[in-house]
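Internal tracking record. Fields below are filled automatically when a chain is submitted to the structure queue. Please do not edit lines marked as system-generated. If the sequence contains nonstandard residues, flag them in the REMARKS field before resubmitting.
Queue: standard
Priority: normal
Entity type: single polypeptide chain
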Amino acid sequence: MKLVIVESPAKAKTIQKYLGSGYDVVASMGHVYDLPKSKLGVDVDNDFKPQYVPIKGKEELIESLEKKAKKADEVILATDPDREGEAISWHLAHLLGLPTDAKNRVTFNEITKSGIQKGISEPRTIDQHLVDAQQARRVLDRLVGYKISPFLWRKVRTGLSAGRVQSVAVRLIVDREQEIQAFKPQEYWSIDAKLSAKGSRKIFPAKLHGRDGKKLTIKNEEQAQAILAAVKDAPFSVAKVKKSVRKRSPAPPFTTSTLQQEASRRLGFQARRTMKAAQELYEGVEIAGQGAIGLITYMRTDSLRISDDAWREANACITARFGEGYLPPARREYKSRRGAQDAHEAIRPSTPGLHPDEVKGSLTGDQYKLYKLIWERFIASQMADAKIETVSADIDAAGYTFRASGFTVLFDGFTALYEEAKDDKEEDGGALPPLQQGDPLKVKEITPAQHFTQPPPRYTEATLIKALEENGIGRPSTYAPTITTILSRNYVEREGKALKPTALGEVTTTLMKDLFKDIVDVDFTANMENELDEVESGKMDWEDTIADFYGGFKKSLEEAESKMDGTRVKIPDEATDEVCELCGKPMVIKLGRYGKFLACSGYPECKNTRRIVKETGGKCPVCGKRMLLKKSKRGRVYYGCEDNPKCPFMTWDEPMSETCPKCGRTLFKKRGRAGRIYCAGEGCGYERSLHE
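SYSTEM-GENERATED OUTPUT FOLLOWS
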């Protein structure tokens, strides 16, 4: 009997199905060894040697693995195909007394029959460079976290943490907030005309563009009114028409970061939710009539490469569903960004011919949505360009130039299946009526509008992940846990989809920029990532890399302790309009161990505190009291009656300000593809589609 050790039970179950009775596939449940939680666990005076210990709570599991290994004819280490997986296999080899130079390490890029057979047939030795890269990151993160965090406890607040990637992520969010606060809006105006051509009933828009061949900026109302007066009774005519055909190419298949970004924009998934569903799809899902199948390739990658087999399967799928005309003239090759790790393919369906609708009944909602997104993106990435005819018309009126633009789709190409979502929505223009140079135009309406320049937007999860990747901060596997950490530590909070720094995040970042500038410096952190990649490729020694970092870091720590001796930083309270019901003084928002709460500004004389209540504007359909926004232990938003526990009414659906036309009670909004607006009042039954 051969013993195969993977990381998760779900993955073990799927692989067991393909390997059969000659194998016993078991799960290590992730890491078995790690640095101790109670102390630094790194010998800084002895080449930064890590002091690994068995993870608490895994004693029985470790004992079981040891017993199984002794009985097995052969032990095969089949943990995930990345540096964390390599380190787990290395620890397992030491735990089970296996020679580290033995060819007992296999990897699976996809959990399918062919993927398992390929992996099993190509055993190799443990890649020590990958192990060293993981050790270097682990030791580096431990030094930063365990050396700076106690300093922050003493100088700011107990329970704080610092991290090599998280501190830079918070800094990006804080810096953006400071940009927003410092932003001074500038006034400008636009003038829009609605026009129609002779012989056409179609009304089309045109925007004032310039004058005498130069682009024009209207700074105030006085200038706008002067232009309006000049063109009000002037004839409008077509000065120039420009037509062109342009091609639009599809987006490449997903990497980890682009999957997280697109799932955020298109599905509203947080990065953690995306990675959970992706992990399940990779490890294997029970499909009716087929058993457990891994539906996607490995989900932690920054490569855009795909295999020859995947390309051929995609072509067959495109031909069957859309016809040969939707194939590009040559195979598409996508270039990965500089520094990308090319060990794995891009994220794609492991069986491209398996349409999402064929497996929908066997998947959870999140699994189906994500599989559909991955499938459509991959298939579209191998399809033909879309061809679009664009038309731009310059329109003259009293020396001023208005511009109208439109387009017509000549061939939909890949857009027949999928188009990438955008953070900034672009306005779509339809087709213009037939226009020729010299054609007179009829003016239906001319409208001036005042505008003000806008500050840069706050980061969302999608744009933060994009910024981290573009700046070379962290790696694909770190984005989701980083965002989870900075939110759970109350450095950052959500405001809708936006990420906004808390007072704690701003104070801590200011302190870090002053005392540990390298740790929160984007360029320094990116360079550190590059050095860690050099360790992975075998070009640098991991102990030397840590030693180079630690010299300057230790000096910064000593200087910080000296500079802040006897000093403690106060986190400013957030003012509110609420008044203390006990003493009449203003209530302020404070940040405690478990989040924000209201407290009397008269503390310590008045110690009144209370929970922060977020009203929804809706009323409970059972008792008529206020409906409040609440959060579950896992952070999921729900809505409950303020009179809980007397009134137990709760719902996941959002209360609306709109009332029921039948009974006058609050309406609720259920989102999703089958979204609806409905009344929860007993015996009412009113509802309508959300998409009407």
